[in-house]
Input
Amino acid sequence: MNRNILYLLLGAFFITSCLSTNATVEVVVSNPTDIERKLEVVEVSLNDIYDRVNPGSSDNIIVTNKLGDQIPYQLIYNGEDQPSALIFAVSLDAHESDTVIIKKGTPEEFNPLVYGRLVPERKDDFTWENNLVAYRVYGPALEETGEISGGLDIWVKKTENLVIDKWYKDDLAGIASYHEDHGEGVDFYKVGPTLGLGMTAPYYDNKLCLGKNFTEANIIENGPLRFTFELKYAPYMVGNDEIVESRIISLEANKHLNKVIKTFNSSSSDLTLATGLVMSGESENSTYSDKDNGIIAYQLPEDTNNGIIFTGVINPIGFSDCEIANGHFLGFNSYSSGESYTYYTGGGWNKYGFDSFDSWINYLQQQREIINNPIIITIN
Output
């Protein structure tokens, strides 16, 4: 080979290597709404990053603001062996844009803002939380005692600390019951054999057709910004049809609402689904519905010691109808077997974050607009 050509090739290789080593990806995040977006999680494909940054390992990536300060991020695996996306949180005023930088480096350690696990020491509860709220569903060991519930429970919090392990440990040791508020929050929501807070079931012959406790739970994403898991259920009957149900539930940092993806497989191609908020009494102005925008909300009666829990559901495609039936406030939709049925559900508390039912409704309305108008991501 000609020596000059060899030198040119070596020089090009050296320049390319330096560019790859020092390459950065600028991610411009833009808020398309009139709503302030505070610490909202956004997602970027890793393919867009790896095309420009060659970290050698997914552990050698850092995310910084324009000042060079590192910010927490999480790799998303979607149940696979290798990550496919990266998420981080941004804050933007109405119609504001900002730039986040992704490059090769050694990431700092940050405290997780989400957490969850199976709790075998408490009859197979599966419980998860973020820095604002905690939730729980019930497992097979509890069903063996005769207590059957496929509904969703809420633990209201007034601390940004992660409390699940502490509350279970203290409760089981007889030190402090989580059914009493010891300064961090409390579990005073009652589920029983209902949908609880925003679960969904087939609706047949004017009745809710409820399954039993989950049979299997698998964690898919485990923080520090998003916690995702899958629940599987034993088959149950709806009329003459056998139903097999599964749920994928995600909770991100700084949100009161879970994202729920439900699937019902049935020998019948068409079902009617009802998403519901269990009610423990009706009073004037205790419910709110906007079926076109897919919002239902309910204010529980005030508990003398613990205050008021607000519950709500957002279905981005809307509801065909909303009504009070079977002890629930329900939103209905038609459904074809095997489809993914995606919506959002969660709760708030008048002792932490929401001073009235109106403030909770306003939160749901804003979240509905946020869901329908995600932050715009441009990679430079």
